[in-house]
């Protein structure tokens, strides 16, 4: 599928979840030959700290020689197996791609924006030659773009056009994880828990005191907390009913399950987690 960035809208309440929107950007295209032209993500500004890599934990997490852990911003990669679970497909490939890209001797340039709840430093990571790690992974089809508030104020919108372009390139060419069929909400089950790219038709939008709920076909509900609604201020969520959407985020089972409500939930924190595809049937 050629997935150009489409305009977004935001729906209401029914079940809780995470959305994935694609914004309309003025991407540069060679229309005559149908080949996208991608400008590299700009190299880091002067004066940023550097560090030595100790090891690659997984596709989006690094360990530095000073024992700090780094979590890449703007990207999520397939998970390595833990606690008896097997690796997700492409997880080992993503880890190896990071190791190959960074090498053992290269120092890293870090643009750090605070910490996450696991005490990992959230950062954009560059090689000394200015090439960006997240862009490399997205171009290879070994990760998904993702934005989760709170966003560092110093980064502005945090939406790097180059990352959208890098993912679009991999998607058009069906590289890596884009070679697989996108999950339809009608067949989603608890086995699909974890980070998920999914499509479904909105059946109902509802609002409660603290949340907006978007009910998809099947057993899935999307949830927008009202503390995050300001991110969706340009959207009219109430008009989403009947629309087919593509969302990306962490799909979870609702605990405890509630009679008559969807058992799977995805929390939408930012419009970059949802794309409106129009009133069309999922393929």
Automatic annotation (TrEMBL):
Keywords, comma-separated and alphabetical: Endonuclease, Hydrolase, Membrane, Nuclease, Transmembrane, Transmembrane helix
A GO molecular function held by the record: endonuclease activity
SMART domains documented for this protein: SNc
Cross-referenced SUPFAM superfamilies: Staphylococcal nuclease (SSF50199)
Entry-linked InterPro entries: SNase_OB-fold_sf (IPR035437), Staphylococal_nuclease_OB-fold (IPR016071)
Residues in TNase-like domain copies: 47-180
Keyword Hydrolase in annotation: yes
Segments crossing the lipid bilayer: 20-39
A Pfam family of this chain: SNase
The keyword Lipid metabolism belongs to this UniProt entry's keyword annotation: no
Superkingdom: Bacteria
PROSITE patterns per record: TNASE_3
Matching PANTHER family: EBNA2 BINDING PROTEIN P100, SERINE_THREONINE-PROTEIN KINASE 31
Protein name (database record): Thermonuclease family protein
Lineage, highest ranks first: Bacteria, Pseudomonadati, Pseudomonadota, Gammaproteobacteria, Cellvibrionales
């Amino acid at each position: 599928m050629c997935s150009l960035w489409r305009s977004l809208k935001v729906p209401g309440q029914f079940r809780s979840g995470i959305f994935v929107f694609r914004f309309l950007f003025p991407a540069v295209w060679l229309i005559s030959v149908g080949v996208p032209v991608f400008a590299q993500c700009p190299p880091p500004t002067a004066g940023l700290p550097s560090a030595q890599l100790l090891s690659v934990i997984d596709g989006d997490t690094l360990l530095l020689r000073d024992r700090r852990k780094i979590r890449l911003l703007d990207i999520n990669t397939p998970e390595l197996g833990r606690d008896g679970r097997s690796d997700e497909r492409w997880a080992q490939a993503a880890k190896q791609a990071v190791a190959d890209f960074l090498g053992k001797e290269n120092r890293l340039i870090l643009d750090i924006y605070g910490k996450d709840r696991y005490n990992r430093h959230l950062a954009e990571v560059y090689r000394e030659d200015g090439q960006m790690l997240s862009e490399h992974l997205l171009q290879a089809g070994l990760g998904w773009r993702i934005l989760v508030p709170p966003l560092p104020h110093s980064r502005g919108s945090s939406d790097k056009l180059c990352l959208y372009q890098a993912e679009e390139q991999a998607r058009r060419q069906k590289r890596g994880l884009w070679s697989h069929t996108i999950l339809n909400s009608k067949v989603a089950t608890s086995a699909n828990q974890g980070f998920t790219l999914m499509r479904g038709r909105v059946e109902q939008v509802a609002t409660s005191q603290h949340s907006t709920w978007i009910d998809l076909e099947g057993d899935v509900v999307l949830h927008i907390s009202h503390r995050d609604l300001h991110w969706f201020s340009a959207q009219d969520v109430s008009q989403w009913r009947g629309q087919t959407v593509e969302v990306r985020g962490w799909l979870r089972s609702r605990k405890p399950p509630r009679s008559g409500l969807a058992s799977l939930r995805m929390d939408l924190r930012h419009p970059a987690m949802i794309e409106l595809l129009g009133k069309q049937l999922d393929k």
